[in-house]
Structure to design on (83 residues):
């Protein structure tokens, strides 16, 4: 059975630098999420939600970002034919 719409979660490692804006974190998470899609899936615009962030215990120079996003397949509300 193919799911038409679903929420997925991901984890992204980014440099743990002061001053990294929330928008930059969201953009990085969106790019990471889009890279994981198959040719039959679409990313739901504006669906990235950063759930939490924390420095790694074994390497304080890296921060793990936990995020959620919506994926659409044919039949999902919001699905559009790609041109």
């Amino acid at each position: 059975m193919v799911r038409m719409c679903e929420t997925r979660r991901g984890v992204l490692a980014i440099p743990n630098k002061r001053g990294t804006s929330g928008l930059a974190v969201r953009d990085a998470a969106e790019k990471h999420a889009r890279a994981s899609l198959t040719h039959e899936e679409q990313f739901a615009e504006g669906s990235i939600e950063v759930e939490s962030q924390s420095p790694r215990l074994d390497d304080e120079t890296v921060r793990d970002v936990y995020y959620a996003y919506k994926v659409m397949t044919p039949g999902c509300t919001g699905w559009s034919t790609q041109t």
